[in-house]
Amino acid sequence: MSFYNGIKCIVYHYDPRFLVLQGTLQALTMVIINVEYFMLKTILNKFTEEQGELIAHIHMHPLFFETGLKCHGCDICSDQMKGPHYVAYRCRTCDFDLCPRCYKQKDKTSAKGFGARSLRGNGEQITTWTYFRRIVDLAMDFWPTLVAALVCLVIMQSLQILAPKLQGSIFDGIIAYLQNPGVGKDRFQDAMATYVTIMVLQGAFSGLKSLAQELVQRRMACAVRLKLFASVIRMDIAFFDTMHTGQLTSRMTNDASQMTQPLNTLLNDLLANVLLLVGGMFMAFRTSWKLSILALTIVPPITYSYRSLSMPSGRAASRAPSTALTAKRTPRRRMPSATSARSVASPPRHAFESNKYSDSINTALGHGVKNAYVGASVTAFSTYLNLGTAVLILWYGGQLVCDSEGKIMSIGSLITFQLYWNMMNNAFISLGNVFNDLIRSSSAAERVLSLIDARPDVNPDEGEVLVRETVKGHLKLRGIQFRYRSRPDSIVLKGIDMEMPPGTTTALVGKSGGGKSTLVHLLMRFYEPTAGEIILDGKDTKLLSSKSVRQCCGFVAQDTQLFSCSIEENLSYGLGRDHSKEEVIEACKAANAHEFILEMEEGYETRVGEKGIMLSGGQKQRLAVARCFLRKPRMLFLDEATSALDAENEAIVQGALESLLLELNSTVVLIAHRLSTVINATQICVIHKGLIVERGTHDELVAKGGVYAQLVSRQLSRDASAVIGAKKAKDTKNNQTLATPMTCTTVSDSRSEEQSQVIYCDPAG
Ligand SMILES: Nc1ncnc2c1ncn2[C@@H]1O[C@H](COP(=O)(O)OP(=O)(O)OP(=O)(O)O)[C@@H](O)[C@H]1O
C-alpha cells in the first residue's frame, strides 16, 4: 500500500489547476496508511504479547519466568541464581530479578513486609507515571533554571531547523555565482553570513541550555539524596534486617542520579526531537511536498523491518546489563573488607573467590559479545535502509532538478531536502527509544521514591514524649509474642509475662536462640511486639515516643559497634547534652577502660577504625560500658555485656556496673551465659524456645532443682571457682549490693508442653 502510494506520487500527472487539492489528498492517503499501520501493529501486539505476572507489592512491572540467568542476582535477597537452569522471574522493562525462593514467599500473609520490607508509603498508588509526575514536581522546585533551559532549547532547535535551508541557499549561491558572478556572489555571501551567525547563536544557546539543565539535574540529585538519607536514617531496625548495605548504597548513588534522567530524556530526547520532527517536516514540505510524500511512504516498511530485527537483540541486551551489574556487584560482595579478609585468608579461599569473580566476568563478557554481533547486524541493516531512502530521494529529486532545469527544484533545495530528511530520520529513531528510557529511569525513581516514602513501623517521633527525669523504669510485659518480618514462619516469643520494678535486676538465661536478645530488643523498642503489651510506668509503650523511651535506656550489645572516629567521639555519640572531658574520663575509669586508652599514643583521640577493628573485643565492650556510665540510663540492658572480658576485668567491670546501678537505681535486664554474673539478680528467668520456663532467685531456682539447677551444676563442674567466688563476694557485701528484695511477681506464664520437654539447656549454646 505504502509503496503503491509512493509510485503513484512519482507517476501521477498533477493538474496545475487542482495541484493543492491533489497534493493534499495524496498527503492524506499517506497519513492514513501510517495511522493504519501503527494501529494494526498495536492491536496485534496487544493480542499476541506474553502476559507476565504482576506482583504489585514486590515490583511495579510484570515479571516473566526465564531460564539461563547465570550470574544474575535476586533483587530481594541478593543471592545469585542457582540450579542447573538458573531460573528466575525477570522484569523485561527494567533490570529486576526475583529468585524462585523469594517468589514462593510472595503470597505469605506477611507479604507486605516481604523482602524490600513493607516500605509503607503515603498510600499513593505507584505507577510509572506517578513517579514521572513526582520527578517533574521535584524539578519544579528549581523552575527558574528549568524555564531558562526550556527557552534555550526551543531557540537552539529553531536555529538548527533553519540551518539546512541556509546550507541549500549557500549551494544555490555558489551555482548562481558560477552562472553570474555579479548576482551570485552577494547571494552566497549573505547566506554565508546568516549561516555563521546562526551557528554562533546555536553554540551559545546550546551551552546555556546544557548549563541550566546540568544545574537542575545536580540540584535535584542532591535534594533526592538528602531526602533519601533522612528517610533511611529514621527507619526502624526491622527495615535493616532485610535491606542490604549494598542496596542502600546503590540507591543513594546510582539510582539517585539515574532517577533525574527523565528530565534529561524529556528535554534532550522528547522535546528536542519533537521540535526537530515537526519543524523538519514543515520545512521539508515547504521545500518539496512531492519529495516529502515520497520519502514518508517508506517510513512504515522501514520501521516495521527495523523493529522486527531489533526485537531479539533488545531481548538479549536486556539480560546483559544485569549480568554486567552482577559483575560489578560481585567484587563489592567478594572484595575483602578489614574483617572479611580474615575469613578469606583462613582457611585459604583466595582461589575460590577469584574463580567466582572470573565466572561472573566471563558470563557478562559472553552476553556482551553476543550483543555486539546482534547489534552490528541491526546497525548494518538499518544503515542500508537509510542509504536506500537517501538514494531514492536523490534519484527522484535529481530527476525533478534535471527535468525542470532547476525551476521546480534547485540543486540547493535538493540538498536542503536531503538534510531535512536526515534530521527527521534521526529524530524519529531517537523518539523510538524515549519511552523505554523513561520506563527504565522510572524504575530507578521507583526504588528511590519508595524509600523516600517509606515510613518506619515504629515512628521515633510519634507518641507521648517521656521526660527523662520523671521516668521510674517500672517495666511490665503482658502476653508478649513476636516474630521477625524477615522470618514470618517462626514465632520467636510465644507469650512472655513478667514485671521488672524500678531498681531491680532481671537476668535472662537459657539456651542460645531461645529469644533473650529479641526480648531486650522489644524493650528497647527496636521492634514492635506482634501481640501483647509492654508497659512502662503504667503506660503502654506503643503510645510513647520510641525516641524518648530509648533516651532513657542504656544498651550494651553482644557485638559492640563503634564508629570510625575517635574514642571520645564514640563515647559521647548520641549523648544529647554537653559533656566535659573529665566526665568522659570518669566514665572510662569506672568501666576500667581508662588505662588501656592512655596506653594508646593518641589517648582519647585515637581513631578506632571501621567498626572498631583496631580494638580488641574486650576493649570495645569496656567502651560500651563506659558509654552507659556517661548516659546514666533509667533502664539498662546488658546483652552478654562482659562476655569478651577475662575473669579479672569481668570482675572489675561487673563491680563498676553494680555501683553504677546502686547510684542510679536503674532497672536492669541482663543476659548472661556465665551464671556467675546473674546470681545476684533480683529475679532470674530461664527462657527456652520463646517461653519463660522457670523464674525466681538464684537460691530458689537451685533449691527447685529444675532447668536452672541443671545449668548451674553443669557450669559449676566447668567453672566452679568463678561461681563460688562471686557468691562469696555477695555474702561479704551484705546489704550494700543491689540485691533488693525479690520482687518478681509471677504472672501467668503462657507455658506449653515444650516446658516439660526441656531436659537440658546448654548455657553456651
Ligand atoms: N534479625 C533477625 N531476623 C530474623 N530472625 C532472627 C533475627 N534475630 C534473631 N533471629 C532469630 O530469633 C531467634 C531468637 O534469637 P535471639 O538472638 O533472641 O536468641 P538468644 O536467646 O538471645 O540467643 P543467644 O543467647 O545466642 O544470643 C533465633 O532463632 C534467631 O535465629
Could you characterize the architecture of this molecule?
Helix content is 59%, strand content 8%. It is built from 24 helices and 13 strands. The chain has helices at 2-11, 19-48, 100-104, 128-140, 143-179, 181-233, 237-242, 245-258, 261-287, 289-297, 299-334, 340-345, 350-403, 411-453, 516-523, 546-551, 567-572, 581-590, 594-599, 617-631, 647-664, 698-704, 707-733, 754-757, and strands at residues 63-66, 88-91, 97-98, 475-482, 493-500, 505-509, 531-536, 539-540, 553-556, 635-639, 667-671, 683-688, 691-696. The strands form three sheets. A six-stranded mixed sheet has the order 9-10-11-6-12-13, sandwiched between helices. A four-stranded antiparallel sheet has the order 5-4-7-8, covered by helices on one side. Helix 21 (647-664) links the parallel strand 10 and strand 11 (667-671). Helix 1 (2-11) packs antiparallel against helix 10 (289-297), helix 5 packs parallel to helix 9 (261-287) and helix 11 (299-334) packs antiparallel against helix 13. Adenosine-5'-triphosphate binds at residues 241, 484, 486-487, 492, 512-518, 765. Residues 147-440 form the ABC transmembrane type-1 domain. Residues 475-714 form the ABC transporter domain. Pfam families: ABC_membrane (PF00664), ABC_tran (PF00005). It is found in: Membrane.
